[in-house]
Fold:
Amino acid sequence: MFQTRVMSIQDISCFGKCSLTVALPIMSAMGAETCIVPTAILSTHTGGFTGFTYRDLTEDIPKIADHWESIGLKFNAISTGYLGSFEQIAIVKDIFEKFGDGAIKFVDPVMADNGKLYTGFTPEFAREMAKLCAQADIIVPNMTEACFMLGMEYKEGPYSEEYIKDILKKLSDLGASVAAMTGVVLDSAPDRQGVIAYDKSKDEFCSYYNENLPVKFHGTGDVFASTMCGALALGRSLEYSIRVAVDYTVECIKKSIGDDEHKYGVRFEECIGYLTEYLKGE
Ligand code: PXL
Structure:
């Protein structure tokens, strides 16, 4: 019997709950076969840790892809997250060409937050990431990533809905059919946080909000992206996929509040039951 299959291309941060150590358990729990392409192995993620190790696996990626092509693997979705170099972006473009037919190409341009690029990234890298986004079907940047990709000045939120909608149209001009902005707080409802998406083919916006919790945890973007991509790969609508991803991420954050031990990532494992139950409803 057919099983949904997703390719997830990003790093393994051995400690720190992000990228593949989040995508693999979440999408697996959702029922999708999750085939991982590790781009690098780090001892921890780079946010708030020093002295982490970094083993680059760039040269393995085309070999993995070539082997998979030779055995005729097909994917419902190809998902990318944290990528470490220009070369890795070029390799992902090749993978999109090789495996893109019939697959949702989902790009989370992980590289920045709160107005700043993460350790090791440059504005030139952001422009290259914008070119990868051009070849995607769906992109899910936060405001900082959107601004770096569009060469715009970053402004602190909350924002007007018009401002976000204007940026989403500019993002979709890069090429992707759907651009969804994550972590949106509107000035009209500062106690809510969510996502606004623009579907270029329908010329329609959709949005979904949940509580705006007054805390920040690392890796929540990866929890969101894995859940949204998993839902889309399983054939759910854009609206549903955004809703389940926002609600599950908020549930994970709530579970982690007050646990200062876990500032490096959220306790998503303890909320997996919430996610699987959610998927059983409508
Ligand atoms: O959560 C995004 C992410 C993924 N992988 C690595 C990171 C980060 C963010 O800092 O450092 C290695």
Remarks:
- Residues 11, 13, 18-19, 42, 45-47, 82, 110, 118, 219, 221-222 surround PXL (CB under 6 Å).
- The mean pLDDT is 97.
- Residues 69 and 145 are 32 Å apart (CA to CA).
